[in-house]
Amino acid sequence: MINNNNKVFRTTMSKYILLLLLLTGGQVTAQQPGAKFTWQAALPPVAQSGFYHIALTPAVAAKLNNDVTPNFRIYQGSKEVPYLLQEQVGGYDVSSFESFEVTDNIRSAGKNSTIVFHNTNGYTLDHFEMVFKNARVIKTMRISGSNDNKNWYGVTDTFVFDPASAVQDSSSTTLVKTIGIPSSNYAWYQLIIDDSTSAPVFIEKIGRYRTNSRAKEYTPVPAPTVSIVAVDKYPRETRVQLNFDQPYLINKLSFNITAPALYRRRAVMMVERELFDGKKTIIQPEDIASFELSSDQPAQVVLPSPGNYRRLLLVVQNDDNPPLQFGAVSAWQQTIWLTASLQQGQSYLVKGGDVNLPAPVYDLAYFKDSVPANIPLIQPEQPVNIAVAVTAEATPTVFKSKWWIWLGIIAIAVFLVFIAFKMLKEMQGKQ
Question: Minimal CA–CA distance to 331: which of 425, 250, 431, 416?
Answer without folding.
Answer: 250
